[in-house]
C-alpha cells in the first residue's frame, strides 16, 4: 500500500501523534476501537457506492481495517505528518473486495497501480462529511435528555415549524428555543472536535 503524495495531502489536518502511537503499539487491542468507530460506516458506504452489495461492503470494511492493521508500522515512517484519513481512503480504494465489486481486479501490480481510483475524490469527501455529521449527531444525542434531542431533531433536522413542534411535544416556544440553541452549540463543538481529531 502506498502513502498519499504531498499534493493529495494539501489542506488536510495531520492525525494526532498520540493516536498514531497507540495504533503503532496495538496488536489487535483496544487502540483500534476509536478509529474503527469513526471510519467503519464511511468505508461501508464507499463500498456500496462502488457497486458492492451489503455483504461485499462488509468485506471492504474488514479488508481495509486488516490492511491498515497490517501496515501500521508505516505510521512510524519518517514523515513530517501522517494523515490517517488519507491512508484509510487509499486502503479503501486499493481493497481487493472493492475492486472485485467493480470487476476491475487485475493480476499484475503494474496494471493495478495505473488504474484510476475506484471512487472519485468528490465521493470520498461527500461521504466523509456525511460520516462526521452522523458521528457528531450520535455524540450529541448521547449527551442530552431524549426530550431535548427530540426538539432538536424536529426543529433543526426535520425543519418543522416551531408551533407544530410545541403542539406535538407539549412544550412552549421558550423551551424549544433553549433546546435548539444548546444542542446547536453542542453539535458544532462535536463537529469541530471530530474534524480536528480525524480529518
Description:
This protein has 199 residues and is mainly α. It has 2 domains: 6-118; 125-198, Arc Repressor Mutant, subunit A. 70% of the residues lie in helices and 0% in strands.
Tally of contiguous helical segments: 11
Structural class by helix and strand composition: mainly alpha
Total tally of structural domains: 2
Radius of gyration: 20 Å
Share of residues in helices: 55-70%
Largest sheet: none
Gross geometry: elongated
Question: Termini distance?
Answer: 20 Å
The amount of beta strand, in percent, is under 5%
Mean pLDDT comes to 76
Tell me the number of strands.
0
List the helices and strands and how they pair.
Layout: H1 6-9, H2 17-25, H3 33-49, H4 54-70, H5 84-93, H6 96-102, H7 109-114, H8 121-143, H9 146-157, H10 162-169, H11 173-198
Compact summary:
The chain has 199 residues and is mainly α. It has helices at residues 6-9, 17-25, 33-49, 54-70, 84-93, 96-102, 109-114, 121-143, 146-157, 162-169, 173-198.
Give descriptors for this structure:
199 residues; mainly alpha; Arc Repressor Mutant, subunit A; 11 helices; elongated; disordered N terminus
Amino acid at each position: 500500500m502506498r502513502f498519499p503524495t504531498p499534493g493529495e495531502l494539501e489542506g488536510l489536518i495531520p492525525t494526532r501523534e498520540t493516536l498514531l502511537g497507540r495504533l503503532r503499539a496495538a496488536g489487535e487491542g483496544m487502540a483500534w476501537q476509536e478509529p474503527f468507530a469513526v471510519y467503519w460506516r464511511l468505508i461501508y458506504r464507499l463500498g456500496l457506492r462502488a457497486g458492492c452489495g451489503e455483504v461485499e461492503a462488509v468485506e471492504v470494511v474488514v479488508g481495509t481495517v486488516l490492511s491498515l492493521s497490517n501496515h501500521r508500522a508505516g505510521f512510524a515512517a519518517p514523515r513530517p505528518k501522517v494523515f490517517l484519513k488519507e491512508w484509510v481512503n487509499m486502503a479503501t480504494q486499493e481493497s481487493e473486495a472493492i475492486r472485485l465489486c467493480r470487476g476491475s481486479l487485475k493480476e499484475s501490480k503494474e496494471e493495478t497501480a495505473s488504474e484510476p481510483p475506484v471512487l472519485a475524490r468528490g465521493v470520498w469527501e461527500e461521504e466523509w462529511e456525511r460520516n462526521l455529521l452522523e458521528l457528531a449527531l450520535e455524540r450529541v444525542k448521547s449527551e442530552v435528555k431524549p426530550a431535548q434531542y427530540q426538539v432538536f431533531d424536529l426543529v433543526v433536522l426535520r425543519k418543522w415549524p416551531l408551533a407544530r413542534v410545541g403542539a406535538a411535544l407539549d412544550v412552549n416556544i421558550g423551551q424549544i428555543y433553549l433546546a435548539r440553541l444548546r444542542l446547536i452549540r453542542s453539535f458544532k463543538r462535536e463537529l469541530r472536535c471530530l474534524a480536528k481529531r480525524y480529518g
